[in-house]
Amino acid sequence: MGTGIWRWLLIPALAAAISLVMACGGGDEGNGSTTDDTSAAEEFTAAITNPDDGATLDAGDIEVALDVGDFQVVDKLGHAPVVGEGHVHFYIDVAKIPTTPGKPAITDDETTYHAEATTSFTWQGVRPGKHTFGVQLVNNDHTPLEPPVTDEITVTVE
After folding, report:
1. pLDDT one-digit tens code per residue, 96-136
2. Where is mean pLDDT largest: 1-5, 9-13, 20-24?
């Protein structure tokens, strides 16, 4: 009879210990925790490859192209977020790229950004002056990655 009592006391204690180990990070393979998702975003990269920062360009159409690392650019604009996939927002002459977590990474002026499921976009009829081009990798639902992944360059258009 004494052995039976210990068994009933030991089983809940072992279950509690296992739960504590799992909650503290032991055996976390495939647990889908937010921490794992966020740290994965830190590996994503975006770098504008065309035009060069500081370049002098002719007025007119200007293509902005970028290299993307460890991120799948997919045509699922407006769909639910999936870690590691999304699209690119292209910006021209914005004071600050919108990177507020959970809010669409768009500007108030629709002429200053464009969402695209490709790694290049051509701005039409760019006028002479100094212009800043920016890019941002965003989730399918247009929200910024966490942490945000952006790049900017400034050019002179003549």
Report:
1. 999 999 999 999 999 999 999 999 999 999 999 999 999 99
2. 1-5
pLDDT of residue 77: 95
Q: Are 67 and 49 in contact (CB under 8 A)?
A: yes
Structure token digits, residue 82 = 């999936």
H/E segment holding residue 146: strand 144-157
CA gap 82, 75 in Å, rounded:
12
**Domain containing residue 69: CATH number:** 2.60.40.10
Pairing of strands 60-69, 45-50: antiparallel
Query: CB of 72 within 8 A of CB of 46?
Result: no
pTM equals 0.74
- Closest residue by Cα to residue 142 from 123, 116, 118: 116
Alpha-carbon distance 74 to 122, whole Å?
18
**Are the C-beta atoms of residues 41 and 143 closer than 8 Å to each other?**
no
- Among 117, 109, 105, residue whose Cα is nearest residue 150: 105
Q: Are 18 and 53 members of one domain?
A: no
User: Which structural domain range is residue 19 located in?
Assistant: 1-28
